[in-house]
Every structure is written in C-alpha cells, then in structure tokens.
C-alpha cells in the first residue's frame, strides 16, 4: 500500500516577510536556501541543505481576520537539551517573541513560543520513551540537569 514517508515542508504567509525572514534565519538559525523577494515574495529555509532543499517557506501576503486561527503550531526538532537551552536564551532577548511554556511530553522535551507574527512554534528534543499523549509536565530546562529531566520523562512511562 502507498504510504507517506515524512513531512516534506511547511509554508506560511507572512505580513512582514523581511522581519520573519530575519527571525527564522538569525534567531532559529535556519539557512536560506533560495528566495525571490521581488516578484513572488518567497524565502525558502532548510535545516540541512545537503539533505533537503527546504523544509520551511515564508511567502508575503498574509491576509486574515484579526481573530482567525491560521496555524495550530509548527514544530522543529533540535538535537539536544543544550540546543534547547541555547534557543531559550536567544528567544528571551527577542522583543517580539513570547515563550509560552516548556514541558516534558515523555516522548520529547518541548519549548513553545510565538514568533514575531504570533504563530505558535515548538522546538523539541526527542526521547526514546513511549508515553501516551497528550501529556505535558512543566519543566525548568535551565535549572535541571539532563539526568533530572530524563527521570521526569521516564516517570511517565506506563507500567
């Protein structure tokens, strides 16, 4: 039977393309793999240009009602808890960014925040544990060691 192998990329419309382009490249560290700023107003980003041309696209022209819900969230995988900690420190100094919460899902440690245009973004580190979802225990990644966080995740594995 035919099956989907994985998610290829996500594209979102931006009200201020240059502001969002700066945020995703400078703060989150995504590489701009291609763009057409003049005619189409598009920027293509990748986390690994050797593996994938782009995983994320910004395009000018977001038009919605003020109360419209456009995106539930966009999630990016980071390799380690140290990377998650470094991103937390980076995000805390960004004036247009609000960190919503940092949790252990058992299957991952996730940090949720809103980008400069209010889209919910998650950065997460996978764990090897199988824990039923949804589940989210608040954690302090700056004050906790990796071993302490692992114990929190393991504690949610069903008996």
UniProtKB/TrEMBL annotation:
Q: Which InterPro entries match?
A: Glyas_Bleomycin-R_OHBP_Dase, Glyas_Fos-R_dOase_dom, GlyoxalaseI/FosfomycinResist, VOC_core
Question: Which part of the chain is the VOC domain?
Answer: 6-126
Q: Name one Pfam family in it.
A: Glyoxalase
Q: Which residues form a coiled coil?
A: none
Entry's PANTHER family?
GLYOXALASE FAMILY PROTEIN
According to UniProt, the name of this protein is: VOC domain-containing protein
């Amino acid at each position: 039977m035919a099956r989907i192998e994985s998610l290829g990329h996500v594209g979102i419309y931006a009200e201020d393309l240059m502001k969002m382009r700066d945020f995703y490249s400078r703060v989150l560290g995504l590489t701009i793999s291609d763009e057409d700023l003049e005619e189409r107003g598009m920027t293509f980003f990748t986390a690994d240009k050797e593996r994938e041309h782009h995983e994320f696209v910004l395009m000018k022209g977001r038009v919605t009602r003020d109360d419209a819900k456009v995106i539930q969230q966009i999630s990016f995988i980071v390799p380690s808890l140290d990377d998650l900690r470094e991103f937390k420190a980076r995000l805390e100094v960004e004036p247009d960014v609000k960190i919503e919460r940092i949790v252990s899902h058992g299957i991952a440690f996730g940090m949720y925040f809103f980008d400069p245009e209010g889209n919910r973004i998650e950065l997460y580190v996978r764990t090897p544990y199988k824990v039923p979802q949804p589940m989210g225990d608040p954690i302090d990644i700056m004050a906790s060691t990796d071993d302490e966080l692992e114990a929190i995740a393991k504690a949610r594995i069903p008996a």
